[in-house]
Amino acid sequence: MKILATICARGGSKGVKSKNIRELRGKPLIAYTIECFKKWGKADRIICSTDSEELADIAKKYGAEIPFMRPVYLATDNAAKLPVLQHALKECEKLDGCKYDIIIDLDPTAPLRKLNHLDESLKIFLESDANNLVSVCKSYKNPYFNMVELDENGYAILCKKPKTNIIRRQDTPKVYDLNASIYIYRRDFLIETDKIMSDKMIIYEMPEISSIDIDREIDFQFTEFVLKKGLFEFD
To answer: What pLDDT, on the 0 to 100 scale, is given for residue 231?
Structure first.
């Protein structure tokens, strides 16, 4: 079984300026994800897809390969993640002269993951017939109970209508937040699909502390606080 490990990191960022290379407790943010893959040691190749020469140099310093630079059309604010992954897979297979079986993509904006998270998620995936796996955490808002949207008349209604009257959040169906940490794909599905969500997608649940996705300045500061206070420890 051949595993391709991917890290997709654009040079630009609107929510947090240059967040992928911004220092978090003395290291660039992207370094945490590269080091996780390196310590895990089960991927045949660890590559970073980026459009930034500066980011590429930093990624190489911490142990990722940059076998190609990401094309400009895949590095815009509107570029979706899926075409970036498909491009990375096709380029690596062309360069390596082989086909990969499994693609594991880790997002550098979710740095608080442990090695056992990779082991457990891959084990669950390989024991299934799923097309893909996404990591999640428990959601503390629930569309059946305390999340609303506006109807065509502008009135607030529950996002998802429950089958019975629910008076406590604890009685609602389980829902999860996608925590943007771990994505696993079978090669043929990834090549052929036009959407990340599939009819045969499974989840891997992670703790809340490992599910911080740095999208805003407050997320970055909270991650720094968590590490400073020793609330999360890497392997």
So the answer is: 96
Q: Which secondary structure element, helix H or strand E, spans residue 124, and what is its range?
A: helix 115-126
Q: Residue 183: which of 119, 113, 104, 92 has the closest Cα?
A: 104
The pLDDT score that the predictor gives to residue 132 is: 98
End-to-end CA distance of the chain: 25
Token pair of 219, please? Answer: 């997320």
* Residue ranges in the chain whose pLDDT is less than 50: none
* DSSP, residue by residue, 112-123: ---HHHHHHHHH
- The pLDDT assigned to 120 comes to 98
Structure tokens at 22: 């911004």
- Over the range 133-166, which residues count as b (16 or more CB within 10 Å of their CB) and which as e? bbbbbeeeebbbbeeeeeeeeeeeeeeeeeeeee
Q: What pLDDT sits at residue 14?
A: 67
Q: Where in the chain is the domain with CATH 3.90.550.10?
A: 3-135+177-228
Give one word for 175, left, alpha or beta, with left for phi > 0 and alpha for psi -120 to 50.
Answer: beta
Superfamily holding 3-135+177-228: Spore Coat Polysaccharide Biosynthesis Protein SpsA; Chain A (3.90.550.10)
- Beta-carbon contacts of residue 141 (< 8 Å; ≥ 6 apart): 147
